[in-house]
Structure formats: C-alpha cells, structure tokens
Amino acid sequence: MATTTITKTEKLVGKRIRRREDPRLITGTATYVDDIKMPGMLYAAILRSPHAAAKIRSIDISKAKALKGVHAVFVGEDTKNAGAVPCGASLPGLRVPHHNVLAIDRVYLVGHPVAVVVATDRYIARDGVELIEVDYEVENAVADPEKALAPGAHAVHPQWPDNVAFTFHQEGGDVTKAFAEADVIVKQRIVSQRLIPNSMETRGVVADWHAADRTMNLYTSTQAPHLVRSLVAQILGLEENRFRVVAPEVGGGFGAKIQTYAEEILLAWISMKLQKPVKWIESRRENFLCTIHGRGHVDFYEIAAKRDGTITGIKLKIIQDLGAYFTVLTPAIPTLSVLMMPGLYRTPSISADIVGAFTNCTPTDAYRGAGRPEATHGIERMVDMVAAELKMDPAEIRLKNFVRNEEFPFPTATGLVYDSGDYSAPLKKAMEMAGYDKLRKEQVEARKQGRYMGIGLCAYGEICAFGPSPATPAGGWESATVKIEPSGQVTVLTGISPHGQGEETTFAQIVGDELGVGIDDVLVVHGDTSMVPYGIGTFGSRSTAVGGTALYFALQDLKATIKKFGEMLLESDDVTFAGGQCTCNKSGKSIGVKGIAAAAYRAMKLPPNTGPGLVATHFWEPPNFTFPFGAHLVVTEVNGETGDVSIKRYIAIDDCGNILNPLIVDGQVHGGVAQGIGQALWEQAVYDDNGQLVTGEFMDYTMPRAHMMPWIESGHTITPTPVNPLGVKGVGEAGTIGASPAVVNSVVDALSPLGVRHLDMPLTPEKLWKLISAGRNA
Amino acid sequence: MIPQQFEYSAPKTLDEALGLLAEGARPLAGGMSLIPMMKLRLSNPEHLVDLGRIKDLSYIREQGTVIHIGATTTHHDVESSPLLRGKCPLLAETASHIGDVQVRNMGTIGGSVAHADPAADYPAALQALEAKIVLKGAKSERTVSAADFFVDTFTTALESGEIVREVIVPVDGSGTGTSYQKVLQPASGFAIVGIAVRVRKQGDKVAMARIGVTGLSNRAFRATAAEKALEGRSGSPAEIQAVAALVGQGVDANSDLHASADYRLHLASVYAAKALAVALGRIA
Predict the structure, then answer these.
(1) Distance CA A520, CA A512 (A)
(2) B41 vs A766: CB contact, 8 Å cut-off?
(3) Would you state the CATH architecture of domain A297-467+624-777?
C-alpha cells in the first residue's frame, strides 16, 4: 500500500512558524493593485475640493477635455445615476446624507471629489485635473464636533441645521441609584483625538468591464471583497454573479479598507462608460484627506464608587465627530464604545448617550480597535482617577472590581455576555515582570530627586470575532472550503481577506494538524470572489476566530469523507484517521491522504453514499463575540526641562485564548502597541477653523517609527474561549487598545505630584513642559 | 510621483550645467526637498539640470588649514568621512542628524545649503564654523561667508544661474571642542531647534565661542551676544546657563503646530546649554 510523502506527525499549531506570505513581500514580487496592467488601460485622476464648505457655481472642463491624451472628463451631474456611496449602519432616526460619488452642487469637506479625468497615462490625467476650472462660493465651515453642536454653527448639511446626525441612548442596571448612593463621584472630559490610519499601501482600484458578457472585474485594495461586490453591483445595477472583486496583495488596512468607497463605484462606472479598463491609485495626500479617519471622540465621564473602591455606576456622554459623510460603519463605531464602557469591571449600572455630530471633515470609521480603544481609554483613565481620589493603588482598585472567574459567562450592564476570563492574571503577571513594588519604591526615590517617573497600568477588554450575525450590519459568519487535490495537496478557500494578519500561515497550521499534512502542502487562497465562497472579510479581530473556525468545521466534514474512503480501501469498518493516515485498528494496515485522494478522484470504486472527490465547505455562524483581555504596564519618565516623555519599560500581557502561532501573535501585539503609543504621544489629525487639514502630510503627521519604539516585553496568559472549538479569541487590535491608556496613565502618574489628574492626547512635550513650568512656579 | 512635464538634462561637466542654468534651468542635486515639492506640484520647474553626474563635484579634500567639500557630497559621505570626523567633527556630527538614512544617502550638502530651509541642520554648523560658500555661475565664481549667505527663509545670496560649488570649513587644531544638539520635529525630522557650538580654550578661559542656531527663526544665525558673553570665561555650569539664556534673546521665534515661539525659545536655551557643556567637555 502506498504511503504518502505528504503526511507528517509534528504538531504545527502553537509553533513559531515564519509567515509563508513574507518571501513575496520582502522580495518585492507581490502583486498589489498598482502592479496590475492591462492592454488599453486608462488612468483616472480626481479633482478634489480645496474648500471644506462651498457651493459649486460652475465647472469648466473644456480645457481638460481638449488636452491631448484625455479620453473623458466627468463631473457630478454625469454620475448622478451611479448611486450613492453606501452606509451599512442603521440607528433609529439616523440622518444619512446622500453621498454621491462626485459632488453635484456642493462640497462638504476638503478632498471632496468634484471631477474625474480619464487619460492614457497618469501624468496626463493629473495635468487634465489642473486644467479644470471650478467656481466655488466658499462658505464658513465647522471642523470641531463640539463647535458643530453649538447654536448658530455652520450647518454642514443645510437641511439639518443642528448638525446632529443621531442621538443614541442605552442604559442598564439602576444608574440613578448608583449615583445617589455613591461615596465618591469622579467626572472628567476625555478626548480621543482624530487619527489618520496610514497603511503602507494607499487605496487603489482597477475596473475592467466586459460588455459582451456583462462581467466586471474590479481589483481593489480592500479588507472585504465580497461586501464591495454586493454593494457596487447593487449600486450600478449589475449582476452579482458576473461581478468579480479581487483584493490582490493588500498592504495594510487597519479598518480603513472595510468601507466601500466612492472610487470603487466611480471606476466601475467609468469602465462601463468607456468600455476600457481604468486604474486609479490614491496618492498619499489623497489618503490623508479621503480615506476614513479614526477615533474623534469627546467623552464626558462620570463614575460612581463606594469608599472601598467598588465601582457601582458609569455615566457617559459621547460626542462623536462623524465628519461630513458616512462610510459603511461610521455611525456604528461609537456604539461599540458604549458596549465596552464597563471594561473588565463588574459595574452593575451604566447609562450612555451618544450625539453624532456632522463636521466639514473626513468621515470617521473603523480604525484598529474601532470604538474599543476610546472605551478602554475612558474607563482606564477614570479608574485611575477614582483610585487617586480614594488614595488607593491603581492595581488594587482594578483587582477589586474585575469580573471574577466564577462569574463567567458574565452578563454586562451593556447587554453583552463576556465569554471567559481570568482578568487578574495578566495584570498580576505584568506587575510581577515589572517588579511593581520595587518600582513604586524607585518612584519615591525619583520624586525626592525631583524626577518625574510614572508607572501606568491598563487592564483592557475587547469585543472581537465579529460576530453573531444579528448583531452585525452585514452578517457575522464566515466560510471555508477545503479541497484535497488528486495529488494529495490541500487548497483552502477562505471568505476572510487577510492583508498582513498571516492567515496563509495560521490556516495552513490548522489544516496541517487536522489532516496530518505538511505546511508546504497547503495553499490558502483568499480575496477573489470568483474563487472563494462568500465571506464577510477581515476586520474586528475576527479572521481566525470566525474564519478559522469555519475552516475547522470544513476539515471535520472532510475528515469524515476521508475516513469513509479509508474504510473502503482498507476493507474494514474499524478505521482511525490520525496523523494523515487511515489505519485499520485490526490489521494495522494504513493508507495516507495522498493514496486516499488518488482513489477518491480516480473513483474506480466509491464508499456507500459518497461521491467522488474530496471537498468540503462550511459556513459557520458564531454564537457570541469573543472577549480577549490583557494588561499593559508602562514606566515613563518625563524630562522636567523639555517635557519629553521617555518610555523606560513597556510590558504587554495579552490573553487572546489559544495561540496558533506565537510569532504572529507577538507581531500583532508589537504593531498594535506602536499604534497605541502613536496615539498617546504623537498622532493627531489637526484641522484649522476653515476645515483645512493641517496635518495632511507625513511632514506634519507623526507616525510612530521603529526608532521611536521602546523595547516591548510581551507575555501571555491563556484562557480559551468556549465560543469556538479552536479556543481562539483574536489579537489584531489588542495592542492598540491597551497602549494609549497605559501610556497616559503612566505620564499622569509621573506628573501627579504637580496636581495633574488628567491629560488629553497626544502628550506632546510642549503640553507637558507648560504643565511642569506652571507647577514649578505655583 | 506624478509631477508636471519637465525637461531633464544630466550634463557631465560643470560648465555645461552652468550654461543650462544660465538659460533658466533649475538645478537638481539630491532632490530631497525639490522632488517632494514637484510631487505635490507646488514646484513645477520646466527644465531640471541634474548635477549628480558631474565629475568632480563630490569630494572632501584637505588643503592647508581648510577642508573643501564639493556640492554633491552626500550627507552620508560627510557623516562618515574619516577626514571630517577627525578634523571637522562638528560638520560630520551635524550631518548624522539630518533626516533619516535614505535622506542622508541621497541628500547633498550643496542642495541643503542652497535650499536654506530655516529648520535644516547644516546651516547651524556652517554658521558656527564660519564656513565659506563658493558660488559659481557661468561666468563668475565668488566666495561668501555663511553669515552673508543665509539671508532669509529659503533665501540665500545665490544669484540666478549660480550654484553652490563647494563649502569650505576650517580645520581646528587642538584646544577646540564642538557639539551639535538638536530637538527633532518628530514627523519631518527637521530641527525644531538645533544648536551648533564651537569653542576654543586657552588655559582656563574660553578664547573663542561660536554658536550657530537653526530652527528658531527665519534663518540660521550666530548667537553673537551669547558668544561674547562666554569668551573670557571659564565655562562653569552657571556661566553656561547664563550664556545659553542669551541665545534666543531678541529673536523673533517661529511658532507652528509643533512648537510655539515660547517653547522654541526655551528649548534653544536648554539645548544651547547642552551643546556648550558637551563642546567644552570635548576640548582635548
């Protein structure tokens, strides 16, 4: 009997296996949207508004049209039938502005697309853009959500003079009683500033329409190719089965590529109009202005506690800066903050209100963490303030209020059910690694020397693995198909769409262990709607927890078929499939996956009720979200002379359930922490009063860089989730969620001898220097 | 990069390049400032003359008591030159603070000096070194002092058709100490404030002090009041503090997103003290 060379016995899950995606990425041979070239392809360039608010009196495209090499110029009137850019979120009473792909009579933000030039090359297209003359009647703009809500503010959309897109209320428990009976109430306004997601690859689209067979091929840098397909096909009235969306190599997304953008609709529309393939690649400047921004919260917190530190209630009012328009999830993001406002604490009573404010700014939407960093930042700052008020150690108040191990599954006051946890474990581990008590003693000494040393804690919780379909705007399940080819090699087709998360590796590890094949015998295919089953996409730390689980169940189905073939081939009904071999428990004879695959496709003989081939598909609906958690501990020192913050130690302990690949998990934590530190110390989208984005280039927007990062001491505790059989919770956003409060708590702690109790981000040296100078002079 | 259309020449000789420049073409050296501006179409030159292929424009040569540095010498070459590290360490140290590795591999001393960004690093060092800058046109060559060269924001003594041909820095003998201390604008890498100090001692006293300042105002300048206050003193910590406080005196300081005028002035004093202390400590 043939034994396959494909089988292996070593377990892959849990190993630090290097990413199989990396060779093509680091050798520059990956294919991104801009690498796609087609015969006769045209290039589009977009004229964008230089004003944040203006009426368009007239547009003169005659000079642009006359330029040699220009094929077409389109303005808003031309594209009226192209439909509106979609918003997928729904809230009661939500005012949804019509978001045409090109402005029609008004522009609402700097960067608003006004016209598009299509030319034989990208240079001519840009030249053409500069020849378009637009007569604007410039109006006052409003670029700050609190100012937008003030009486008499400029109306972003004239039909809604109060700039209120929606209000939202949620409560649980008895918050009135909690506050009436509180020993201490702490209040604070906390800002989570607007951030600009910057993936290494900007967005880009190639649209390729074939009129004869009514097929559209749309290549786009997206996290959710099937959603783009459904939405753009519907908007343009095309047949979904003839509409293929490909997410080729995608150079990062961080949430900013979940959306379906105007350019995806516009390029498809142009390709149909001109019967040619058309490409548009977003410039970095456009990326700053026209791809979504993140955060943009002004939060008003009130927290009620007992003298012993027991937190009894939280009131929260969120003013969400929505920007001028909605993208797919814009209004839904702050509702995630409400869901997670209790953090990891038992907190029996909550009350939350959101006011969504229109501003003449770029829309906000999901950015790594999407609503949870804001919530975590808020609760973790507030808990520190309560501790300070009660003169308690910030670790002690956290340990006191954590949901206890025996309370899981734990229903929160916000209506969630936390799956599993040992919330004190990561905090205790971080404190042990740091030598917490010793650090506090060092701090006493440092303060005697006049140094500003701080120790900051953050215990964070997340809501991940989106999610049960009824709780999501477009379904929360995921799909997988596993095919064992006649050669015995394995192809996985997944509905998720990884773009840096490494599922080509982790999914191959799962397959390797389940089927007993080597990792190099597994190919993971994703991102092409013509190849993979319908999927929801990669975001919200869901890919492995939901997509990996779909794969796991598909593998179980496939294993059952393998076993049937094994029984037939080994002529026994007592067969076990393990380690890539079907083995007859009586005779000891065995046959490997390769032999079984050959027999299944040759089909000389088939097991009862079994067809030829070895393919299984599974669509999996998760019963709940997952709730990863962890703790960060940060030691900082603030230079009293300059206000510079230096991070002396950074300890990150994450609990994301079972770990499939520690190397990838570490990388996710490191990258996430970098983004969280970026928000805490440097990043900020700054608009002036006219709605001009002042930080519209890397010259002014401080992205964290490698040399600005501290050494991250990372560790894990492992609490598997009962939500899925893999026991995995998700790790894509954890670092970002934990980092900003940990850093800010540390710096506030450093400056607490000056009477500082709260600081808003980013903690720029000048901001701290001013406080220190004022404190010294006081 | 999608700039407007432009003509591009890459002459092999300086004369050829100067001839084209006399006709109104614009010089391109490392392109670290010009290319980004062309990318954003904020600068749209019709004709670019690439100086990078000209033979003998990239060099570091010692001649008597001075060192000549050719215009297209990269920041990396300056930073890593054993000659400069040994005999004009201030310039090598300053070069090591410019931008990032990629910028230092591409950017040139002539390009940086001619661009005269008020937050560039070199001008502070060139002021402190009392460097000479050789300007060459099609029919002329002249030498101006750094003090006269940096006129205003992005404005120098260069006439139309002229390029920076070389920079001449002195070789300081023993008894001299130098230091460049910089507050980095974290996004761009330019200086919020940069202080270049060059001091010489005779016996216990500071015989000469030169302090070049960049980032603080419209152009790099020498803090002469502070220099004078230090000369003749021993350079004690208290004197350093007092001298450093004079660096920003009377300066109309820049204010922007990254630092207010007050904070810049404060940093100028803090970093001047740092640079002075380090430079004095380096005197062999």
Answers:
(1) 9
(2) no
(3) 2-Layer Sandwich (3.30)
Residue B2 Cα, gap to closest chain A Cα (Å) = 6
Under an 8 A CB cutoff, do B2 and A700 touch? no
Sorted by where each begins, the domain ranges of chain A are 22-30+477-620, 33-139+202-250+257-290, 297-467+624-777
Give the integer Cα–Cα distance in Å for B17 and B10: 8
Q: Give the separation between CA A101 and CA A80, rounded to whole angstroms.
A: 8
Task: Dump pLDDT digits (tens) for A232-266.
Answer: 999 999 999 999 999 999 999 999 999 999 999 99
Tell me the pLDDT tens digit for each residue of A260-278. Answer: 999 999 999 999 999 999 9
Query: Of the candidates B5, B183, B188, which has its C-beta nearest A699's C-beta?
Result: B188
Mean local confidence (pLDDT), B177-188: 97
What pLDDT score was predicted for residue A7? 55
Tokens at A258, concatenated: 């979940």
Stretch (H or E) spanning A712 = strand A712-716
Instruction: State percent of chain A over pLDDT 90.
Output: 97
Q: How far is B106 from chain A (nearest CA, A)?
A: 18
Supply the ipTM of this predicted assembly. 0.95
Q: What's the DSSP call for residue A13?
A: T
Whether B2 is in a domain gets the answer: no
Instruction: Look up tokens 């007993």; give the residue.
Output: A516
Q: Does residue A257 contact residue A222 with C-beta atoms inside 8 Å?
A: yes
Whole-number pLDDT of residue A5:
44
Chain B segment 164-183 residues within 8 A of A by beta carbon are 183
Q: Does B260 touch chain A (CB under 8 A)?
A: yes
Relative to beta strand B163-170, strand B66-70 is antiparallel
CB pairs < 8 Å spanning A and B? 43
Average pLDDT over residues A753-772: 97
A129-151 average pLDDT score: 98
Per CB-CB distance under 8 Å, the chain A contacts of B2 are 45, 122-123, 126, 283
Residue B35 sits in a domain of what CATH number?
3.30.43.10
Q: Tell me which residue range forms the domain holding B237.
A: 176-282
Handedness of CA B156, B159, B165, B166 (dihedral sign): negative
Contacts with A, B 262-281, CB within 8 Å: 263, 266-267, 270
Within a domain: B1: no
Residue A83: pLDDT band with limits 50, 70, 90: confident
| Domain closes at, from B155, B170, B185 | B170
Partner residue opposite A694 with nearest CB, options B257, B260, B266: B257
Architecture of domain A22-30+477-620: 2-Layer Sandwich (3.30)
If you ran DSSP here, which 8-state letter would residue A669 be given?
Answer: H
Judged by DSSP in three states, A242 sits in helix
Judge whether B64 is closer than 8 Å to chain A, CB to CB: no
The predicted model gives B200-205 an average pLDDT of 94
How buried is A706 (Cβ within 10 angstroms: 0-12 exposed, 13-18 middle, 19+ buried)?
Answer: exposed
How far does the CA of residue A18 sit from the closest CA of chain B (Å)?
28
Contact B266 A769 (CB under 8 A): yes
Count of domains observed in chain B: 3
**How far apart are the CA of A228 and the nearest CA of chain B, in angstroms?**
28
Phi/psi of residue B208, nearest 5 degrees: -145, 135
Closest-CA residue of B relative to A283 is B1
SS3 category, B252: coil
Closest Cβ opposite residue B263 in set A45, A708, A769: A769
**Which structure tokens are listed for A714?**
């990372």
- Among the candidates B37, B53, B69, a domain finishes at B53
Hey, do A22-30+477-620 and A297-467+624-777 end up sharing a CATH topology, with the first three levels equal?
yes
Q: Does any domain span residue B107?
A: yes
Chain A residues with beta carbon closer than 8 angstroms to that of B259: 766
Q: Could you tell me if A160 lies within 8 Å of chain B, comparing CB atoms?
A: no
Q: How many Å lie between the alpha carbon of B15 and the closest alpha carbon of chain A?
A: 32
Whether residue B140 lies inside any domain: the answer is yes
CB contact under 8 A, A285 and B263: no
